[in-house]
Amino acid sequence: MSEAAWLTDDHHAFGMTVRKFLAQDYEPHRVRWTDERRVPHAFWEKAGALGILGASTPVEYGGSGLSRSFDLVTYMEQGRIGDTGWGIGVHNIVQHYLVAFATEEQKQAWLPKLASGEWVGAIAMTEPGTGSDLQAVRTTAIAEGNQYVLNGQKTFISNAANADFIIVVAKTDPAAGAKGISLIALETGGAEGFQRGRQLDKIGMDRQDTMELAFQDVRVPRMSLIGDAEGRGFYQLMGQLSWERLMIAVGALAASRCALDVTLEYVKNRKTFGQRLMDYQNTRFKLAEAKSEIEIFAAFVDRLVEELEAGSLKPERAAMGKWWGSEMQCRIIDNCLQLHGGYGYMNEYRIAELYRDARVQRIYGGANEIMRELIARSLDRD
């Protein structure tokens, strides 16, 4: 694979730290954590101790003060082993919300615990019936004296079982539409009225703990409002979506590479009718197509990362990466599974997990239909 221009020696060194960590502390437990449907809290703490969780968190708040591209290196290493179970992406998004929008007091109180792995972070956006329509959330955070009172339900919440700190999307002014949305921080330890619901039975991403959450008269301090004014939540959410969609694009690229790698190993060793699968023209053409698509998309992702670093990444560009990458990922993995034949349908083969995990990429972070609409709107402005 071609080398990305933005990858420096420091990125490579950081990547080797992540690779070694995953090899020693993740892979040996993969099957057990799949059965348990979560990555244990202790693993997060080890990642924090190595500086992986807080790589792009400023030094003054307990992090390493590196650029966000170092987080992308972590996602590439995670994708290299075909994993989506460790919800580090969500955890890092939480930190970036705080870096971008929290007050100084909030940053000092919360970010060091997230960077160290003492806390695992989650974001409670989606509700039953709302999906991508964040303006339609019904969860409320009503001010009473020096507190907010949270009431509502959330679903599809990643990291929910482990979460010590949750950013809750809620209406502080239910009559104001999008202008009434705020982000409320909840420290889950000892929070009365906060309940974790059932762990959701997904078709993929088995090691990522995804649950329903409920808030019944949960009282939090006024300082739990992220930022210094109510009604800024929708703006804050929109401000971080490009980063989330770039993360999904990078994950799609890494998963596609993993699928190609495991398939190449399989077809070079599997024989049928006296010759390797690799020797059949259909096999060679399918894999040639996959490598070409991966290389072409990698060039686009590299450009998006450069735009991120320059502060010029536009929402429609991130949307392009998200929808094209996730569609490519599903297409390549489907073809690679086909080349495995019946073995590809067996969960003991990595390609089967890659296949199950890929489908949600076209849904979360904004469904791909929404991505197309965002891109189309930008054409109308040109």
Structural description of this entry:
With 382 residues, the protein is of the alpha+beta class. Helix content is 49%, strand content 15%. It is built from eleven helices and nine strands. The strands form three sheets. It has a four-stranded antiparallel β-sheet, with no helix packed on it. The longest helix has 37 residues, at 233-269. The protein starts with 8 loop residues before the first helix and ends with a helix. The relative contact order is 0.11.
Layout of secondary structure:
Layout: H1 9-25, H2 30-36, H3 41-49, H4 69-80, H5 88-101, H6 104-116, E1 121-124, E2 140-144, E3 147-158, E4 165-171, E5 181-187, E6 194-199, E7 210-221, H7 233-269, E8 271-272, E9 275-276, H8 281-310, H9 315-340, H10 350-358, H11 368-381
Parallel strand pairs: 1-4
Antiparallel strand pairs: 2-3, 3-7, 4-5, 6-7, 8-9
Helix pairs in contact: 1-4, 4-7, 5-6, 5-7, 7-8, 7-9, 7-10, 8-9, 9-10, 9-11
Q: How can the largest sheet be summarized?
A: 4 strands, antiparallel
Give me the CATH architecture of the largest domain, please. Up-down Bundle
Shape: globular
Structural domain count: 3
Query: Can you count the helices?
Result: 11
Mean pLDDT, all residues: 95
List keywords for this structure.
382 residues, alpha+beta, Butyryl-Coa Dehydrogenase, subunit A, domain 1, Butyryl-CoA Dehydrogenase, subunit A, domain 2, Butyryl-CoA Dehydrogenase, subunit A, domain 3, 4-stranded antiparallel β-sheet, 3-stranded mixed β-sheet, 9 strands, globular
